[in-house]
Design goal:
Radius of gyration of chain B: 35 Å
CATH class of one domain in chain B: Mainly Alpha
Helix content of chain B: 55-70%
Oligomer: heterodimer
Distance between the termini of chain B: 111 Å
CATH topology of one domain in chain B: Helicase, Ruva Protein, domain 3
Number of strands of chain B: 0
Largest sheet of chain B: none
CATH superfamily of chain A: Glutaredoxin
Largest sheet of chain A: 5 strands, mixed
Order of helices and strands of chain A: HEEEHEHEHEEH
Strand order of the largest sheet of chain A: 5-4-3-6-7
Strand content of chain B: under 5%
Radius of gyration of chain A: 21 Å
CATH architecture of chain A: 3-Layer(aba) Sandwich
Order of helices and strands of chain B: HHHHHH
Strand content of chain A: 15-25%
CATH topology of chain A: Glutaredoxin
CATH class of chain A: Alpha Beta
Number of strands of chain A: 7
CATH architecture of one domain in chain B: Orthogonal Bundle
Number of helices of chain B: 6
């Protein structure tokens, strides 16, 4: 009996250690989105210039939906120039970048767009419905949509030019009808 | 008779406001709170959407209010959030499938703990019963008695 116990007590720690090993190795920021592979929720917002901005208008293109805010420092400030450069490099290849400004003040958002010279369409999600439709936790978050309008990649944190290129090149390489 | 019936139906129809559906009633704050309390505020630490003062939570409460006012049932509203954020958004995991472990494990742990305590208690009491009476030599016994009587 006592010999059994001598083995049983250390053995009981094995599952606990395994659970801890798994838990500490997993990235807590890496929360899986149930939306991956699903059709991207549609939305229509007004751009900061007042023009309508509808996701449906870009069906058939590769769409990069970027959620940002002017108060999101430094990540949004890091990615804004990379997004603008990438958008200029890819806009003639059937790729469109759509900015969605969330939980922000209009003046601050306009200043952000002006300061970074952003030329891709950007709308304000005033009621948070688009954010919740995309399961957004915070800013910046970026969703890469394929030509069929499905969410293929969700990126949390600042987008770099390299990440943009790799992801969009992969989606561009896919045939139009998989 | 049929004519009368038709006439009364016609009168009813005319007297009703355009669109036979009742206008959406505003959702009660109790109902909004009940749904919001089950959802995790996505930008907070361990706060529900009902308890968080953050703008995100306030917008989520607005969405809950609109959906309830539009006639959705609370479980539908909760499912709407689960579809977008995953079950992570639920403050209490659902009692089904793998999640049952979360509910059953503490129970199992309590039962196992009680069993261990029961076994140990039995073993300790048995040992005391089996133990031979301690023999103390008369000199020591006398000394103990003396010191007891003397007090501290």
């Amino acid at each position: 009996m006592s010999r059994l116990w001598r083995w049983l007590i250390p053995l009981a720690t094995v599952p606990v250690l395994a659970l801890l090993a798994y838990g500490f190795r997993a990235n807590p920021r890496d929360i899986p989105s149930p939306l991956l592979g699903r059709p991207a929720p549609g939305f229509t917002l007004a751009t900061l210039d007042g023009a309508p901005l509808a996701l449906e208008a870009h069906r058939g293109k590769i769409v990069v939906v970027n959620f940002w805010a002017s108060w999101c420092y430094p990540a949004c400030y890091e990615e804004a120039p990379a997004l603008e450069r990438s958008w200029r490099a890819y806009r003639d290849r059937g790729v469109v970048v759509v900015g969605v400004d969330i939980q922000d003040k209009r003046e601050a958002a306009e200043k952000f767009v002006r300061d970074f010279g952003l030329t891709f369409p950007t709308g304000q999600d005033l009621k948070g419905t688009v954010s919740v439709d995309y399961g957004v936790y915070g800013v910046p978050e970026t969703f890469f949509l394929d030509r069929q309008g499905r969410i293929r990649v969700k990126h949390v944190g600042a987008v770099t030019a390299d990440l943009f290129r790799e992801t969009v090149d992969r989606l561009l390489a896919e045939s139009v009808t998989p | 008779m049929i004519g009368l019936l038709a006439a009364s139906v016609l009168v009813l129809l005319v007297s009703m406001p355009a669109g036979a559906q009742p206008p959406p009633s505003p959702a009660s704050e109790d109902a909004v709170h009940e749904v919001a309390a089950q959802l995790r505020c996505v930008v907070c630490q361990s706060l529900s959407v009902a308890d968080s003062p953050s703008e995100m939570a306030s917008q989520m409460r607005g969405i809950i209010r609109e959906r309830l006012a539009a006639g959705e049932r609370p479980p539908d509203v909760i499912q709407y959030f689960v579809d977008r954020y995953g079950e992570w958004i639920l403050l209490a995991p659902r009692r089904s499938g793998f999640n049952l472990l979360v509910w059953l494990f503490p129970l199992a742990a309590v039962v196992a703990g009680l069993a261990v305590v029961a076994i140990l208690v039995r073993r300790w009491t048995r040992r005391r019963r089996d133990a031979a009476p301690v023999s103390v030599d008369p000199a020591m016994r006398a000394r103990i008695r003396r010191e007891m009587e003397r007090g501290t």
